Amino acid sequence: MDAYDIFKKISKGAKFKTKQRPIIKPLENDITIKSEPIEIQHTVLTHTTCSDSNNISTILEDQKNDFVLLNSFAEAGKIISGKKRKKDIEQQLSSMDETKQKKMREEKANRYRNENSISVVGRHVPEPIKSFQELSSSVDSVLLANLAKCGYTEPTPIQKQAIPAMLEDRQILACAPTGSGKTVAFLLPLLQHLQGPQSSGFRALIICPTRELAKQIQQECIRLSDGRNLKIHILSKINKAITQYDPKKSNGKYDILVTTPNRLCFLLNQDPPAINLNSVEWLIIDEADKLFEESVRSFRNQLQQILKACCLHKRRVAMFSATCTPIVSKWCVHNMKGLIRVTVGLRNAVTDTVEQELKFVGNEEGKLLAIRDLIRRGVNPPVLVFVQSKERAQQLFTELIYDGINVDAIHSDRTQLQRDNTIRSFREGKIWILICTELIARGVDFKGINLIVNYDFPPSSISYVHRIGRAGRAGRRGKAITFFTVDDTVNLRNIAHILQQSGQQVPEFMLRIKKRSKKERKRLLTSALKRDDITTTPVYELMKRRRWKRRTDKTIQRENNVNQNGYINKM
Ligand SMILES: Nc1ncnc2c1ncn2[C@@H]1O[C@H](COP(=O)(O)OP(=O)(O)OP(=O)(O)O)[C@@H](O)[C@H]1O
Fold first, then answer.
1. Which of 24, 323, 336, 377 sits most deeply, having the most CB atoms within 10 A of its CB?
2. Nearest alpha carbon, ligand 1 atom 10
3. From the CA of 258, how far away is ligand 1's center (Å)?
């Protein structure tokens, strides 16, 4: 009789979970199951001893050795099972601890996000950082030293969340107020990813809507990457670029390219393409919603073309802006895997460091009187004045320059050199009042702008947010005055709501203005409101000047024709 037969006899009537041999089989596979029959066996044995002692004593006599074996099995089972159970419990406790700890960490991170008005959407979003020192293990000390050199001691809310997300290689759509440091938020992780210079061609591509902004980003990039020897380029002269970046001729010693989409697509459209983007690992789109605007319809096609050209499989995309439209979010959700959406503050809200005022000025004439009055009472330069078109910028400039004011104008009709010089002079304090169009409403960072004057009412609330966002940057305070006439009621309601949202006093009637139809608002965006010229010159004088100009133009044309035909010029 072997141990199995003894077990069978004494365990008669007992139920087992397994039909297999209870001692041997469970021992091989599952210690916990194995321990049960042995314990049951003990119980049965005790019980049987009472009822049939003879029988059992015979068994004990005959199978002494088997029992020793059986007991040792039981003991071993008990010990192993105890150890295992303890281990299991420990494991369970530690995993419970881990989950609890993870939950606690998440709660803590969420509390910290709330304190900083950061909201996130996405899976496994990395925790926000509290200080730049926390990055010492993940970011090169050279880069951290450069941050300190720039005077950035503490990260801004968008930097707290966007930097760790991008450092973990996550694609991101970030929306944070104007002047809140979005440029550093994408440049720092980007520079960390790129490490030192290489000769494989551009590895990062930054796209933004204007050349002015591109230049500013390039300069910030150079400052932050000091000591890394990275080659940071901007696409400016297109003819030079065609030969400079020609894939056949260039040595590929470029790392970062900052550009507007038009210029880049011009190069990509050459046959064969005049630039190679095969090595691009990171594509950053700044002022993303501007590039997705309906009026810039072609950008979405351009983006497709750019994405196609950036064909590296591990290519990542990051989008940043102060305002975000549903079309951008939708695009990102559909095209960016593992996307994290970060929003700081309320979406599309103005920065709370700007004091806002809406001023009714009657009509166009009233505007000119109002700005003169403002200057007469005293303003604190530098001041930015926004108008709706380049013609109006020129008209206002002509009016103010004759008042002996230190003023200049910037718009798309001026040459690249003129634009660069104007911006430089304004930054250096040589120009006190700068008249501008939407050209520099986005992204351009002038330090310490004290006053923004919306001479012409902004065409949309998004435009308003960006325009007044040129003041009150990096925690500084500023003021924005917006003139409006009866013609501007179309958008007045929207802007009034923005003011109210940011805690400013707004007259009740403005909030109650009837909401304009989507069609009407769209029309305003695509074709600007017709306004009278900015001038104090009487109408008859203007007519005279126009007639005279027409006559001179005709004379010049006639003379040109004469010259082309080989006749002697009479003048
Ligand atoms: N951590 C920081 N501490 C202090 N200043 C900072 C910090 N990060 C950035 N800045 C400064 O804040 C200013 C605004 O930064 P930036 O131009 O990146 O703003 P932005 O969020 O991109 O604004 P916009 O939406 O108008 O483009 C800059 O002058 C920059 O030098």
1. 323
2. 181
3. 18
